[in-house]
Write a structure and sequence with these properties.
CATH superfamily of chain A: Luciferase-like domain
Helix content of chain B: 40-55%
Number of helices of chain A: 11
Oligomer: heterodimer
CATH architecture of chain A: Alpha-Beta Barrel
Radius of gyration of chain B: 17 Å
Order of helices and strands of chain B: EHEHHEEHEHEEHHH
Helix content of chain A: 40-55%
Number of strands of chain A: 12
Radius of gyration of chain A: 19 Å
Shape of chain B: globular
Strand content of chain A: 15-25%
Chain lengths: ~350, ~210
């Protein structure tokens, strides 16, 4: 089982002092966070892809990931997510294969549709076609990594004749692909159809919903003959903030929670903690909560935590990562025991 | 409110949505009268009332976060899993109340497709009665619900007698009869939720690939 962090790269004002990092600071901080993730022994660092404020996540994640690859030795680099809808699948095939070479294979990627309506027309696409775009583009992406000469014609992009995507994947092994979705069963079906991984964001929706999506993916994975349902390749998101005591964690995190992008100014921290996997408390509480995910998601292969958003300053995030290192060490003990 | 025989599985389930804000509320009063009249017309019917006032925070949160909390999920399930819906709102500023609209805003696309609906509204004066025709009926038309021809409006003057004026009473019975007839002419609602509907609507992956 792999443990890691995923970032959305938001540039958010710190609600406790009104300070907003510059894009330059945020970008450099993201690198520092990735290096720290390797230092504390995490398995995965994943970045989102964004094209608009308030984000300073890369528009093309391989730019950031290649830089981190050069500065690290062990950690696997991934995305959360790579937009399969608005990117040309040819560019995804080429950029990520190139990253795979630079990172000596220490990478994979997670495909997502993106739910920011205005982004689609910037790239000549229509959000209402999100699912068909994800399905057609990925069908082409797979072929580009697996076939040297691709003849292809589809609905959304210029046809290709005898096209060879370069560079070829490292050792002719295409990068591993996860499909991320919050709520579209079509994407779980797509992941199952190909025997790829399925990642449930798990942050914004109640656990009961995640449980059904994961279970559906597992059943379909088995249906398509890729193995047993319980062996299907599942990843989950998670969101934590930790301190020595539960009270201290709640007190420190509350202003960030209350003003956070997406869910801020909505439900209370207590309610959101109850309804979603968000855990604010001691490292022991995080261990316990995280272990409870497998009660409804089964054994799964990848757990990514969100730790660096909502305006938390770099110093706080690095402190969180120190605690997360301890949490993950503890989680590893439990998962190894469970596997033994 | 349950009007079916205890221990016996009800033949029909009716959801009543009431957007009244006060307690007691004339909106809830009208909602209950419509519910019991419909149950009486159908027989062996379970009537479940969804009061929106206690869900007001949860409804706003759902608009902000994109997902309903567990309490609201249950209320939504009651409405979308019912054989018919009775929806009653006070008239605010010449239309349904914002809370009433917000509740229907957070329902998933298709959640009320083909569902028989009876609409009702209350206000201080009968001058607002066309709100039913120019606001509620188009809303449920958009949601692809089947709205019965008689919509029921109750103004303050209708509440003089207990259980409402004779005119109101007749209107309630007529509307309830129309809703009951519609429910009886249709197969019982599937008990699935949105996830089940999404999967049912998905088709095979080969079809998705080929589309």
């Amino acid at each position: 089982m792999e443990f890691g962090i995923f970032t959305v790269g938001d540039v958010t004002t710190d609600p406790t002092n009104g300070r907003t990092p510059t894009e330059h600071e945020r970008i450099k901080n993201t690198v520092a966070i990735a290096l720290k993730a390797e230092e504390i022994g995490l398995d995965v660092f994943a970045t989102g892809e964004h094209h608009n404020p308030p984000f300073a996540a890369p528009a093309s994640p391989p730019v950031l990931l290649a830089h981190i690859a050069a500065k690290t030795e062990r950690i696997k680099l991934s995305t959360s997510t790579t937009l399969i809808t608005t990117n040309d699948p040819v560019r995804i095939a080429q950029d990520y294969a190139y990253l795979q070479h630079l990172a000596d294979g220490r990478m994979d990627l997670m495909l997502g549709r993106g739910n920011t309506g205005p982004v689609y027309p910037w790239f000549g696409k229509d959000i209402r076609e999100g699912i068909p775009l994800a399905i057609e583009n990925y069908a082409l992406l797979r072929r580009l990594w697996r076939e040297e000469n691709v003849d292809w014609e589809g609905k959304f992009r210029t046809p290709l004749q005898g096209f060879t995507s370069t560079p070829r994947p490292l050792d002719d092994v295409p990068p591993f692909v996860w499909h991320g979705s919050i709520r579209s069963p079509e994407i779980a079906e797509q992941a199952a159809y190909y025997g790829d991984g399925f990642f449930s964001n798990h942050i914004f929706w109640p656990a009961s919903h995640t449980a059904r999506m994961v279970d559906f993916y597992r059943q379909r994975f088995e249906h398509y003959g890729h193995g047993k349902a319980e062996d299907a390749i599942v990843g989950l998101g998670g969101q934590v903030y930790m301190a020595k005591t539960h009270e201290q964690a709640v007190q420190e995190f509350r202003p960030y929670f209350d003003n956070a992008p997406v869910y801020g100014h909505g439900p209370s921290l207590e309610e959101f903690t109850r309804e979603t996997p968000l855990t604010v408390g001691t490292p022991e509480e995080v261990v316990e909560r995280t272990l409870s995910f497998r009660e409804y998601a089964g054994n799964y292969q990848r757990q990514l935590f969100l730790v660096d958003h909502a305006g938390l300053p770099l110093t706080a995030v690095l402190k969180q990562l120190d605690l997360l290192g301890e949490v993950v060490a503890e989680l590893r003990k439990h998962t190894e025991e469970a596997a033994a | 409110m349950t009007l079916h025989v205890a221990g016996r599985e009800p033949s029909h389930r009716i959801a009543v949505v009431s957007a009244g804000l006060s307690d007691p509320s004339s909106t809830r009063l009208l909602a209950d009268l419509l519910g019991s009249a419909t149950a009486a017309a159908l027989g062996n019917t379970e009537v479940e009332v969804v009061e929106l006032r206690p869900l007001a925070h949860a409804i706003t949160d759902a608009l902000l976060t994109g997902f309903p909390n567990s309490e609201l999920t249950q209320a939504i399930g009651t409405v979308t899993g019912a054989d018919a819906v009775i929806a009653v709102t006070p008239v605010f500023s010449a239309s349904y109340s914002g809370l009433f609209k917000s509740f229907f805003d957070i329902l998933e696309n298709g959640a009320l497709d083909g569902t028989p609906v009876l609409v009702g509204a209350t206000a201080g004066t009968a001058r607002h009665s066309l709100v039913l025709e120019h606001a509620l009926r188009p809303l449920f038309g958009y949601l692809h619900a089947v709205v019965v021809p008689t919509a029921v409006f109750a103004a303050s003057e209708d509440w003089g007698a207990s259980g409402g004026s004779d005119a109101l009473r007749r209107r309630i019975d007529r509307a309830a009869g129309e809703l009951a007839a519609l429910v009886e002419s249709r197969p019982a609602a599937g008990r699935g939720d949105q996830f089940d509907r999404d999967i049912a609507a998905m088709g095979s992956f080969e079809d998705l690939l080929g589309s």
